[in-house]
Amino acid sequence: MSAPTPPLTPAVDLAGTREAVDTCLTGFLDRKMRAAASEGMPTEAISVLRRFLTSGGKRLRPLLCVCGWCAAGGHGDTTTIVRAAASLEMFHAFALIHDDVMDRAATRRGAPTVHRRLAQHHREGRSMTAARHLGVSTAVLVGDLALAWSDELLPTVDLTSRQLGAVLPLIDVMRSEVMYGQYLDVTAAGHPTGDVEYALRIARYKTAKYTVERPLHIGAAMAGAPLAVREALSAFALPVGEAFQLRDDLLGVFGKPQITGKPSLDDLREGKHTVLVALALERATPSQRHILDALLGNPDLDDAGADRIRRVLTATGARAEAEHMIIIRRTQALRVLEAARLPPAATAALRKLTGAATARTS
Amino acid sequence: MSAPTPPLTPAVDLAGTREAVDTCLTGFLDRKMRAAASEGMPTEAISVLRRFLTSGGKRLRPLLCVCGWCAAGGHGDTTTIVRAAASLEMFHAFALIHDDVMDRAATRRGAPTVHRRLAQHHREGRSMTAARHLGVSTAVLVGDLALAWSDELLPTVDLTSRQLGAVLPLIDVMRSEVMYGQYLDVTAAGHPTGDVEYALRIARYKTAKYTVERPLHIGAAMAGAPLAVREALSAFALPVGEAFQLRDDLLGVFGKPQITGKPSLDDLREGKHTVLVALALERATPSQRHILDALLGNPDLDDAGADRIRRVLTATGARAEAEHMIIIRRTQALRVLEAARLPPAATAALRKLTGAATARTS
């Protein structure tokens, strides 16, 4: 492989983009907060969302959106593209808040999930059951607000009708894809099988398209990308996105909770139909399969049980195969990227994000 | 009061509008179904949503949207306004599906609610707890899809930038208002008080603005309504909407389940902070208050307990007062309507809808 091409145009400022997106999000929520306070509306919902959005997160989707814009020749004033990028992050807050309800997750980014925090907040004067239910109800509403507000953040009225016609259908498709992917994910949970293809389909819709391909496409469409650029971005995005999900599966089981910010039991307790688990079930001996069938999806799984599952995931070679699949996909993505002859600044930024997305520890 | 003015322009075709909206919705969902089937996506989510949307509903919001359009002088080709109206009904499906999860409602429109139906559908091979949780998760996702698709139904690309600038902010405001109103509603439930003003504030945001004012405004904005028309529509809408919610409160407690399609215990079991309940708590003697405090919000409330509550609601005069408040609001709305000098067809249709919304039995 040739040495990285030195950038000929100014580099994509990833740290600056991140900051601009965060400023856009907090400014938006602060305006919402003032308006709600003046009308006697529940500011609690907004402060919970603000805390969630500012408590971490890789901002991968906004960064990829800006990279897609650069890849298609976007340059100059970034106000409009930053708003579109911030809208994707707001949408992602919606997706995570609802996902955590569905996965009954207690912790995210090292802190209680939104439904847990709200249950705690409303505990006084209520039974535990009533408080937990209220935590779920209000978290669903906070997620709904984030979804509605992701729309409000879109710079719809500032776009030309040509841009609108290119961008809005991609936003629509992205939303349906991630919701469908999540639907496949929750209905398959509890009954994982050795069907690796099915697990890859979930990963493709829930993650590869949603997290990588569509943010790139949306950014590119803002800059009026021709079909060839969009196709090159897809060919790069899908393997990166699958590698991202494979890394997520591995971290969800073998990651250190103090680094990932989430417990390493949740995926196993929910019995998620991940590629990692499907690979193990496909290769398991009868006695290994017996262990997996008995323990995966058990809501009372303890650390000892989780260790038994981990040993089977390792012994079957599933863990090594998942790592191998990540390398294959990363290599393929980087090869596509070099061949695509995008503006060098975009190529350099995408190379960097590929590394961050697939070799991460959190 | 003078006799109804005979229409000088063709009447607003309410039945035809209803049919056109339904055709738009089912056509949209059928296209989604074909696309999902061809890509291996979960068609179950779509068929559940289609069944929900076609199993009843008054279509009040779409009809009011078209009335708002006529009120502002809209006429001729109805394709675009019907799409906007259908979008409101799709949004309403989202709101109801999520509300039923939050209210733990078992029945809606005489049939199991979406989360109950989905729990039943996924019962096999799962514990009751796991199936119920999956029912909730998938219902939240079906609601999320409906919210995303309400956006997709909006005829955004067919609107002029002037129309976009008028309509989109109203859609944004409507969404936030109903979500805020719902947030107030769920956090107040279980602890109703004699604070009638607070109950009216919930009714105003959750229902009056969402169900009546904003649909009228959105339709009017599509026809480029001047401020005066929007103000007249607000002055009409808010009392009608409050009356609508008061009727809803009464039907939720005193209605016949075989006509309303929902059980008459749910609101009482949830301990909803309605105007009806607040009026009773405000007027209750110590022994009546003791009954209400002991029984409202009790998840195990039975028919005998509900009858005891009903007797207190009647004996305190709360029921009669709620009926009286409906009459006052309806009269006020009709007076505003006569004075507004809207196109006679719009006036006639709004008069008809006012009757249907406030004197209904389901």
From TrEMBL, chains A, B:
Q: Name one GO biological process term.
A: isoprenoid biosynthetic process
Could you state a single Gene Ontology molecular function term?
Answer: metal ion binding
| UniProt-listed CDD domains | Trans_IPPS_HT
Q: Which InterPro entries match?
A: Isoprenoid_synthase_dom_sf, Polyprenyl_synt, Polyprenyl_synt_CS
Cofactor(s) required for function per UniProt: Mg(2+)
- Transmembrane regions listed in the UniProt entry: none
Among SUPFAM superfamilies, the record links this protein to: Terpenoid synthases
Concerning PANTHER family, the annotation shows:
GERANYLGERANYL PYROPHOSPHATE SYNTHASE, SHORT CHAIN ISOPRENYL DIPHOSPHATE SYNTHASE
Q: Hey, which family's this protein in?
A: Belongs to the FPP/GGPP synthase family.
Q: What is this protein called?
A: Polyprenyl synthetase family protein
